[in-house]
């Protein structure tokens, strides 16, 4: 946590006093339980109390150096969990309050973590995969990371608005939240027929160097293209094959779980085709997702994944770099969320009808929590440039399956 005599603590305290001086004292009464939790963990002053945050790394003596990094730590018994043994013999954890939520602590070894960080930046955040920067800038085909490594002073030019292009209409003022109904096999055709014009580039963007632009990288698309303006997939662009490294890793995570022990007694509504968990070992096929690049001041607000036609198959989420607070609740924001501290190498699986449509978010990236095995450059000098970037970064790779196996979307 932030040390009270530190300059960061004093700065946060001054900012808190300034922003709350004239605040309505009753404002918190209108917050939903999920919103209240977000506010609690986002707060820089006073620093959030993590005693009610689940932190399973504290049970593992081999992760002591990770837990002590940054002085952020939760509790191993902050919420009810049930341990189980994975196929490989390691421990996984289920959450009785949220059927289908699985946590696999330290699922990735340090070497694999480094491999995925390099893959995310060097191989993936470039064409043909779209990134948030492509909307506003004319990025080189090698991608922003590789351009930065080659010459950080290289200037990237803004993308100009094309006068004859059809862009997504955007109303002036605050951004309107999109609250789509969940996709399913019945409404897929109507969703697919919705016009999905590109977002217009900003007219305020100025030329910028690679070194200044790199920290603004926020996401890179995986597989089927996601249209952020409508919060739907744009299948007209086709699908980029999932890289074998990610595909194999996600399938391995799903196959490591004995799903009979998770869902055998589940009586939830799995939709018109019934439960499909008994076939995931063979039929789970990830085909869409995103790589998120968080800086330590970034957040991901509460949301529900409604765009996938398959609302039950596993979503696999991989944490790399700095630790984060992950919140997951229920089908509305009125359910108080469970806070979980995720560290580098942890894998979360969201599966089944109760979990896949649950509100979730990341209100806080915990600063100065980069795992020691990601800071050591003595034995690997080439890692230095990645280490410098990851000092203030969390990378999250999350992958999912868009269509049920028995559903033919007719896209070929």
Would you give an account of this structure?
With 412 residues, the protein is of the alpha+beta class. The chain is built from twelve helices and 16 strands. It has helices spanning 7-20, 33-42, 64-68, 110-124, 144-150, 188-192, 210-213, 244-255, 259-263, 280-283, 352-356, 384-390, and strands spanning 82-85, 91-94, 101-104, 155-156, 208-209, 219-223, 226-227, 232-233, 288-295, 300-303, 315-321, 324-328, 338-342, 347-350, 360-365, 393-400. The strands form four sheets. Strands 1-2-3-14-11-16-9-6 form an eight-stranded antiparallel sheet. A four-stranded antiparallel sheet has the order 10-15-12-13, covered by helices on one side. A hairpin with a 5-residue loop joins strand 1 (82-85) and strand 2. The mean pLDDT is 93.
Class from secondary-structure proportions: alpha+beta
Tell me the strand order in the biggest sheet.
1-2-3-14-11-16-9-6
Strand content: 15-25%
Largest beta sheet, briefly? 8 strands, antiparallel
Shape: globular
Q: Helicity, in percent? A: 10-25%
Separation, N- and C-terminal Cα atoms: 53 Å
Number of DSSP E strands: 16
Question: Helix tally?
Answer: 12
**What is the assembly state of the chains in this entry?**
single chain
Rg (C-alpha, Å): 22 Å
Give the low-confidence spans. none
Mean pLDDT: 93
Give helix and strand order, one letter per element, not per position.
Answer: HHHEEEHHEHEHEEEHHHEEEEEEHEHE
């Amino acid at each position: 946590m932030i040390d009270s005599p530190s300059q960061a603590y004093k700065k946060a305290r001054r900012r808190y006093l300034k922003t709350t001086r004239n605040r309505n004292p009753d404002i918190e009464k209108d917050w939903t339980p999920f919103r209240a939790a977000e506010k609690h963990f986002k707060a820089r002053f006073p620093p959030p109390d993590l005693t009610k945050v689940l932190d399973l790394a504290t049970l593992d003596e081999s992760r002591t150096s990770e837990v002590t990094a940054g002085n952020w730590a939760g509790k191993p018994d902050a919420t009810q969990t049930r341990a189980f043994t994975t196929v490989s013999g390691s421990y996984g954890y289920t959450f009785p309050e949220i059927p289908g939520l699985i946590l696999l602590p330290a699922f990735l070894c340090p070497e694999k973590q480094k491999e995925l960080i390099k893959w995310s930046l060097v191989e993936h955040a470039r064409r043909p995969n779209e990134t948030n920067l492509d909307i506003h800038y004319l990025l080189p085909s090698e991608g922003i990371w590789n351009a930065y490594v080659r010459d950080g002073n290289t200037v990237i030019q803004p993308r100009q608005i094309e006068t004859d292009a059809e862009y997504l209409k955007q109303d002036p003022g605050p951004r309107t939240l999109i609250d789509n109904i969940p996709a399913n096999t019945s409404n897929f055709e109507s969703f697919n027929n919705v016009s999905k014009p590109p977002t217009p580039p900003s007219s305020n963007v100025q030329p910028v160097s690679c070194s200044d632009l790199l920290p603004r990288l926020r996401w890179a698309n995986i597989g089927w293209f996601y249209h952020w303006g409508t919060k739907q997939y744009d299948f007209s662009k086709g699908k980029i094959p999932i890289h074998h490294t990610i595909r194999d890793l996600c399938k391995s995570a799903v196959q490591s779980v004995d799903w009979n022990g998770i869902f055998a007694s589940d009586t939830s509504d799995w939709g018109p085709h019934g439960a499909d968990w008994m076939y995931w070992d063979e039929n789970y096929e990830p085909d869409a997702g995103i790589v998120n690049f968080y800086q330590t001041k970034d957040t991901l607000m509460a949301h529900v994944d409604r765009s996938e036609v398959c609302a039950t198959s596993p979503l696999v989420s991989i944490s790399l770099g700095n630790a984060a607070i992950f919140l997951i609740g229920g089908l509305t924001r009125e359910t108080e969320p469970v806070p979980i501290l995720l560290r580098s190498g942890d894998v979360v699986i969201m599966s089944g009808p109760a979990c896949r449509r649950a509100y979730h978010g990341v209100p806080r990236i915990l600063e100065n929590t980069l795992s020691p095995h990601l800071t050591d450059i003595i034995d690997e000098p080439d890692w230095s440039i990645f280490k410098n970037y990851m000092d203030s970064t969390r990378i999250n790779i999350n992958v999912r399956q868009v269509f049920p196996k028995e559903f033919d979307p007719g896209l070929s």
